[in-house]
Write the structure tokens for this entry.
Amino acid sequence: MARRLVGALLALLAWAAVAVPVAAWSFTHGSTETVVASHDAQVRPTLDGRVHLDLGPYLPDLRFPAAGTVGVDVEVGKTTASTTTELAQRYAAIAARPEAEQRRVTEVLTALARRAAVTGALAGLVLPLLWWLVGSTRRGELVRRVRGAARRRRGLLVIGVALAVLVGGVLAVVRPGEREPDRVQDPTWLPLQAAYPDVPVPPELSEWQVQGGLFTSGTRRLLASALDTYDKSTVFYDDLVDRVPEVADQLRTPAEDETVAVLVSDRHDNIGMDQVVRAVGDAAGATVVLDAGDDTSTGQTWEAFSLDSLDAAFEGYDARVAIAGNHDNGSFVGRYLADLGWTRLEGEPVEEFGGVRITGVDDPRSSGLGSWRDETGLSFREVEQTIADDVCALDAEDQRIATLLVHDANLGRTALARGCTDLVLAGHLHVQVGPDRVTGENGRVGYSYTNGTTGGAAYALAIGSKLRRDAQLTLVTYRDGRPVGLQPVGVRTDGRMQAEEYVELDLG
């Protein structure tokens, strides 16, 4: 028994002697592609405890301390920004609210660590497996041959072959031929303030460093603009969060049998407002978020930062329900939110919270950054009729839809006109419309309500240092599976916040 225990211990030690270094090497030499700060990016883990941002040939590299001993090297690739100024503004806005990007990179590093651990574990099995394949009888013979002077050379040869197999297996995994690329010289790193003494650097960026080199006047102006955007964005949206308690007493308190949902729409990449909406929702006792679309400007993968921010802001909510708007062009937005765990409405009813039966559909149109729009697949009118037919069929089966979530309220007008749903929630117009009471052909009552732009968007892109126009979110209250009231909350461009009167919905 003791002999077996010693054997098992030796096998474990042999496994660890190979597995640990192979796993560590695989982790530090691994990489993966993802989207970071609106760029396609190559992410490589390091052990220097720093985040290194390689911004390409036209901008100096940046680095700053990571949260722990594991660092990361992020080499950014292509993006959609048409100018470096636009790109710098994006960097500043994202840096002011970095939580979602930090979570994304952490998830990428965790996945690389898991892959490295599996690689190390498999490589570590080479020696114990070889030991087992040789068998105790053959191992005894080898030992006797080694001990025997006449057969010493043959025994050493066998052991050498075994070691060659072991080393070959390990080398096949670690690929030692790969090496770091040659560099002209080691870079010199300077604190931002030292590199740009005439540019005010916020205190929280005091540990950020920039790669030394030729600092042109254009680079200086670009950095000054980015830091100004960063500072204003941080101050503006943090102040909004601090002002939420000032309007908390204006927010209706839900009863124990009621559920409050936060309605957002037309964020258009303004991640600064996400923390504000969450703070208002928490103050109002909300546990659900309803997203009426246009979270992005073009629906492209570079806008994943906006969806990551939205997801992080409403983490922990009981239900998160979304549809895509006309600017969420293509399938990326809906697919990405679904992968993050959001309920994506695709024309089928769901009951995600409080017995509320809800359905919805993506906007059939797609828009670019201009004023044009076109239709793909089913036309707008066809989608409007189809969703009305489906909703009315459910109503006839005593499965009435409490809420129809769409991007443009016109998609729900036929269903309301026929009296088949309690409430149509929408966005798209960037201004509040309603709630409007509609008596249907069957005598049933429903309401149509359009939320203003939660991102304060004047056009398709709202990212920046502050709101471009007044922003809005709406608190929707449900009881016994049906909507019973609405309360809009507005945020002015000057930072003032106001909760409107709670409006009861009289469904008859």
